[in-house]
Design a protein that fits this description.
Layout lengths: L16 E2 L2 E2 L2 H24 L2 H21 L9
Antiparallel strand pairs: 1-2
Amino acid sequence: MSDDDIPGDPVCYASKIIGGHIVDLQTFRDVSQFRKSERARLVEGRRRLENSERQEKTTQLIAHLRRILQENPAEKIAVY
């Protein structure tokens, strides 16, 4: 299996459309590579945080998300 992101089901074609525009294969690969390197950079940054700082940032994030969801109860947030 490749390290590149795998596009969605080809029957759907949603993986090839961004903002209503068809995405060519090279652009898809460029975006996949960017996402992979950005994930690695962010994970490394998080790994370097002290536990207390990570916990503080987590607490701040939770408080921020609660405010957003209270103001916009119909909003959906997806994370992994």
